[in-house]
Specification:
single chain, 511 residues, alpha/beta, 6-stranded mixed sheet, 18 helices, 35% helix
């Protein structure tokens, strides 16, 4: 039986930026009614290929055909008009508008030039029901957590929502759509993807969760350093083989961390939280963090992990309890108080709460140090440049150009820039909220090794991650949260497994 004609084919794709060839003669094809994974490390060219396809970046070489016809896509609007819908890793919606308005922004149903609000809400509710979600489409988007906002972005991509119609998209691109979803939400998304696949929609799926790739995808294309490594049916390539293709070497980086000999955090107490809490955020909790200790926080989405971290950094103000650092009670009324006390915080949402994408790598790295000195005392240029060069080299930030715009870096390198910003301030406690979310295996291993190194050098780390294996791998003590309560603090050891942690999350008490 002859192979069907691809709905999308990209041939000999070339994309260059000043001093960087991001894509070099890359071929990619996507068939109707398949879920196709685009794989590779951060910086391999996945996002660039998607942005070329969707008209965000102009094509420097090669051809694109859609349904066998050559096309030139010069803008995201042209991509949408051609039937290519995209949901990016970061949610780009309007939190001040309702869910329904976000779903139909720019394509509202009108009559005589006036928006038909009742029809808009009806169509939005129809699309939400299609996903099987319990979402009030009249509510402000800001009233929902990041995970639900991600699902709303996916709903928006599915079409106009006319009664009885299927999606208008021929190609649906999902760029890390599951990075903020819990397991039940992932299963909802996968069920929808399979329904769309059955309707003949071609789905390009990007995820750093390998198990998800093998659960839902039919085929995969692997990129490395801007070049095509290969195209494979998922059943023809196991996970070890895939990782070796992505990294260009045998897998072993993460295994080395398993051999890290955990100790009990024998240093003196650095920070103590006593009855610290915030109404509507997290119930009062007690927590001690010792010098050189890594405390991992485990729990389901919405369990209170981020809320706990934000209280310790002063991003949210507590209405109960106190914080003691180095034996002295400190006020955590604002982040500046925390920074002055030696606490640094890398937010899970590096786009809106971390980096300034239009600034350079140098400007982003130096931001916190300059703020701590005050803007009337600028850091001398020679000292500034020496510090920036030191951390670019130490964290292997690529490209190693301090004048590169941060918004153009890969996700893994953006995360390294954010880490460099706080490490340059030499904090006593570094709070990392999902530092490896949405980045590749290689960058993930580098960041995890850095955490181990910082701990061994005496820095304390509060580490939040959705992947329990990651928490177990790095932590001396594991704090388990459930329903916005810190329900257990468990000393890590050989007998502690992901199953034990899951049982604690499920029961609300240490097993």
């Amino acid at each position: 039986m002859a192979e069907p004609r691809p709905v999308l084919e990209m041939t000999g794709i070339v994309k260059e930026f000043p001093g960087v060839r991001a894509l070099s003669d890359v071929d990619f094809r996507l068939f109707p009614g398949e879920i196709h994974a685009l794989m590779g490390e951060n910086g391999a060219g996945k996002s660039t290929l998607i942005k070329v396809l969707t008209g965000v970046h102009p094509l420097d070489g090669g051809t694109i055909t859609l349904d066998g016809e050559p096309v030139r896509i010069a803008s995201p609007l042209q991509a949408q008009q051609a039937g290519i819908s995209t949901v990016y890793q970061e949610v780009n919606l309007c939190p001040n508008l309702s869910v329904a308005e976000n779903i139909f922004i720019g394509r509202e149903p009108t009559r005589a030039g006036r928006i038909q609000w009742k029809e808009l809400r009806r169509r939005a509710a129809e699309l939400v029901d299609r996903l099987g979600l319990d979402i009030d489409v009249t509510a402000p988007l800001s009233s929902y957590p990041l995970a639900v906002q991600q699902l709303v972005a996916i709903v928006r991509s599915l079409g106009t929502g006319g009664e009885g119609e299927r999606t208008g998209a021929k190609v649906l691109i999902l760029d890390e759509p599951t990075s903020s979803l819990d397991r039940d939400e992932v299963l909802q998304l996968f069920a929808l993807m399979r329904r769309l696949k059955d309707e003949g929609v071609a789905i390009l799926f990007v995820s750093h969760f390998l198990d998800q790739i093998y659960e839902v995808c039919d085929r995969m294309t692997v990129l490395r350093n801007g070049t095509l490594v290969g195209e494979h049916l998922v059943g023809d390539l196991d996970q070890v083989g895939l990782v070796q293709l992505m990294l260009g070497k045998a897998m072993g980086q993460l295994d080395e961390l398993h051999e890290h000999q955990l100790h009990s955090g024998a240093g003196e107490i650095l920070l103590s939280a006593d009855g610290l809490g915030r109404t509507g955020g997290i119930a009062p909790f007690d927590l001690e963090i010792r010098k050189g200790e890594v405390i991992g926080l485990a729990g389901l989405l919405g369990s209170g992990r981020t809320e706990l971290a934000r209280l310790l950094f002063g991003a949210d103000q507590p209405d109960a309890g106190k914080v003691t650092i180095g034996g002295k009670q400190v006020s955590m009324g604002a982040p500046n108080d925390a920074i002055d006390a030696g606490v640094a915080f890398c937010s899970e949402n590096r786009k809106s709460e971390g980096l300034v994408p239009d600034l350079t790598v140098r400007e982003n790295i130096i931001l916190a140090l300059q703020a701590s000195r005050g803007w009337t005392r600028p850091i001398p240029a020679a000292q500034r440049d020496e510090l920036v060069a030191k951390y670019i080299k130490a964290l292997d930030i690529r490209p190693a150009d301090p004048e590169a715009r941060v918004g153009r870096l890969s996700g893994g390198n953006q995360q390294k820039v954010l880490l460099a910003r706080w490490l340059i301030t030499r904090p006593k406690l570094l709070i990392l909220d999902e530092p490896t979310r949405g980045i590749d295996i290689g960058a993930k291993a580098e960041i995890q090794k850095l955490v181990v190194s910082l701990s061994e050098d005496g820095m304390s780390v509060l580490y939040i991650a959705a992947e329990l294996e990651e928490v177990l791998r790095l932590s001396h003590t594991i704090g388990v949260l459930r329903d916005r309560r810190l329900v257990a603090q468990i000393a890590n050891g050989p007998e502690i497994t992901t199953t034990r942690i899951l049982e604690t999350i499920a029961s609300g008490e240490h097993q």
